[in-house]
What does this fold into?
Amino acid sequence: MVDLTLIAQHTPLAYLDGGTGSMLLQAGLAGLLTVGYFMKSQWAAVKSIFSRK
Amino acid sequence: MTPYRLSASFRDPSGFVFRRDGTLYRQVNEPYAADLAVLMDGGLHDELVADGLLIASERVSLDLAPEPGAVAVFRPEPVPLVSYPYEWCFGQLKDAALLTLEIARRALARGLVLKDASAYNVQFLRGRPVFIDSLSFEAYREGEPWVAYRQFCGHFLAPLALMAHVDVRLGLLLREHIDGVPLDLAARLLPGSTRLRPGLLMHLHIHGKATRQAATESVRQARISKTALLALLDSLRGAVEGLRWEPTGTQWADYYEATNYSEAAMADKKRLVGEYLRGVGGTCWDLGANTGEFSRLAAAQGFETIAWDMDPAAVERAYRSRAPGVLPLLQDFTNPSPGLGWAGVERDSLAARGPADVVLALALVHHLAIGANVPLPKVADYFAQLGQRAIVEFVPKEDSQVRRLLASRRDVFPTYDRAGFEAAFSPWFEIEASAPVADTARTLYRLTRRAA
It folds into this structure.
């Protein structure tokens, strides 16, 4: 009996084999990278406020 | 003449590149129709072309499609010479990496994502890297991780890190690993101190360990937000930017300071080369070009010039000089780029990408004949494969450079003299002209390939 729910959730096969480890690493790093990125953009905003003065 | 697909264009069901009557085209297939619409109508294509990041393409008639299933046919601007990442100097690979990341960033802003990050998506045009694979974009699906992350690290970050932190010659690992340097290999070769750099720690060291992870079902649940994706791209950009390499300390880095040419000799040689180049046009391959002194001369006379040299520092300096009409590339003529990849033809050998209209072999032949023990007839044979015409400088044994080559070895070259040179080259080339270079014992020859 084919499990139709699995088929429904199945994302289209990617052109490239991204590699399991790489996908999991991305997910793992996502939080850390986002925080870093956010802080960088905040710092850039702070700097631009002062440079306009 | 029947149209044919390019040997490297077979993996992507979205489309392929083909040649018809000498012109290059791209056929776009049905599976790509939706993504193509987003690419074109959403404005990303035009934005990238306008900013010189993506190769310009003109839409042409569907009738030109050689295979069924086409939804569009384009004619991309041709690149004078296809070059491969293992032929690029550090600066070229770094610029190609940054270009790829910039395109990925801009694509995300327009709801598209790069589905691959292969270094083979980049070529050099007018001295700058340009993205050539217009079919690399696909619609971004919220939450999906970047499928090309590992490929980017293998094609770009790993070799660049190895070149910057270990040895610049490691760029040649790309010739062996045509889908990128394995990350665990790169991590193993890099010095431990590179773990202190967050970018290299995350994207190479940890990533290298992660690639050994076997496939599991849980990867389907891997989700990352769009902001996290942008953060990843930015992190990679920072990691690449932080890699630097200065072109000094290699064998040929300071060649032009150390040559035995007087000013008068150099001036005369330039005059002669300029004269011998006259009346011909098209492409010029300067073999052993070093920093491109004579390549620039050829370019100034209208040639589309490739400045080939085996020294990474020389190619780097030539690249940084941004001389118009000159593309510097890495090549060792005693061991030139072979055919690689699938069936050994996916990536063209050096000779398959020629012949050039004219080949310059200045201060080179003695390195091949004496330095590398290649008999002059074999040198002539190979030159005849590389160019329709050749301007060759014969450097005799009296010259101090050849004396240096022979200093620590036996002279086993009885026929290495002007007569021997002319006898060796005559079966392949007609000697149209020759002249001594003032203030030296050298002779410059203007040769034309004989009809086969």
